[in-house]
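User: Teach me something about this protein's shape.
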Amino acid sequence: MENYDIIIIGTGAGGGTILHKLKNSGKKILVLERGTFLPREKENWNVDAVFKQERYHTTEVWKTEGDKDLHPGTGYWVGGNTKVYGAALFRLREKDFHQIQHAGGISPEWILKYQDFEKYYVEAENLYNVHGKSGIDPTEAPRSSEYINPPVSHEPRIQEIHDKLVALGHHPFFLPIGVKLDEKDLLNSPCIRCDTCDGFPCMIHAKADADINCVRPSLDDTNITLLTEAKANRLITNESGEKIIAVETEYKGEILQFKADIFILSAGAINSAVLLLKSANEQHPNGLANGSDQVGRNFMKHQNAAMLGISTHLNPTKFQKTMAMNDFYWGEKDYPFPMGHIQLMGKSQKDMLAGDAPFFTPGLVLEEMAEHSVDWWMTGEDLPAPENRVQVIDNEIHLDYTENNAEGFKRLIDRWESILKEVDGQEHFFVPHSLYLRKSIPLQGIAHQCGTLRFGSDPKTSVLDVNCKTHEVDNLYVVDGSFFPSSGAVNPSLTIMANALRVGEYLLEILK
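Assistant: First, the predicted structure itself:
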């Protein structure tokens, strides 16, 4: 079998981005993706297909506590889960890289700090077409430059809420979002500001995802080979166990081995840990690079909740995901602990609500609810805990997770509900002002997965070193969300992308 200089496993926010960084290196690169290209089809924008039938999610069944079945909300495609993400691309706050006291415990310090990532954040924002505006969010870290794309404007109902929040003394800001939108020339803009973006694949390729922005442009280079429907089953080491020599891969019904000098793993925090655990051998009996017993541990996914604010106001907004607020990210006057982050979701449609409504709810009622709702997403930081972990038991993936650090997040939800009532209550109605529906996101909602192979300076307490190379294996790097020591309270995608660019730059130096 042909030898390669580099093999990249996975094409999501980490794998796709580092491929982009390395594509001009002149090195022979093989990219293995267990999925295929997500098809362009009418179902891309069909609510029933996407949300009820889960057309773009895997049919895999994992296990969780009590040996219960778990149907993970994840998909295997070129571009990974960026194919269906909401493209909210936030930097971690500067303090997120330091030790922080939460009501529920300690969020640990990172081996690197914000300033070590800042230039890569800029590079990632530019690569992924991020629109935004600095200087509004009081928690925003220092920036070396303004966003190169202007913020995505608010539609009238959202602008109204924005203005009322400002009048109440709050600091809503434009949500940084990766879309190919030109509001000055909408006739020729790839993005059309539709209502099927957040959670949907983009039929017209106007969402900045790892497939469209990184993988496909890289394939023009003849040194780069992409194999789809190629699942990495096991990493094979040399006799000493200090180096990977091949990856055993299931491809078109055959089991093949591909060899390389450097291996880059980016299968997602859960599946990257699974691959290392499945690669156990005589030199690594508890799993590859697992002498610390940390592989798979400290899994985090955020505290997540959705809230629908249903009022007497009509909300004809189409592209709703334009605003966020961090006023309570670090707590508030009488509560000195972090609470979390608030942002708008994509606009709810009638059929999206049907799955959570009683079966007897009339369609007309659901339609009225959707037409009057403003849809919010809230994120709080969950803390790394050794018992929250990924395991492989009898060749099955087990994901054990117990919620933690919930106090501040619950306070955030209650606080936000009271603020929204105040916003809508500035006018007088002859009917009740508002109804606020909440939904906590269950364990299968793993879009923000991170932490299972955290990086650090001590091989006894971490899996990866400062350059995201495994402490115990000389030529194995990991560039997905598994390297996070803590989760912060904003979407992790941009930090994964920025870190992939950072590690890619390091590899370019050592490959010279």
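Now, about its shape. The first helix runs from residue 15 to 22. The two ends are 25 Å apart (CA to CA). If you'd like, I can walk through any region in more detail.
User: That's plenty for now, thanks!
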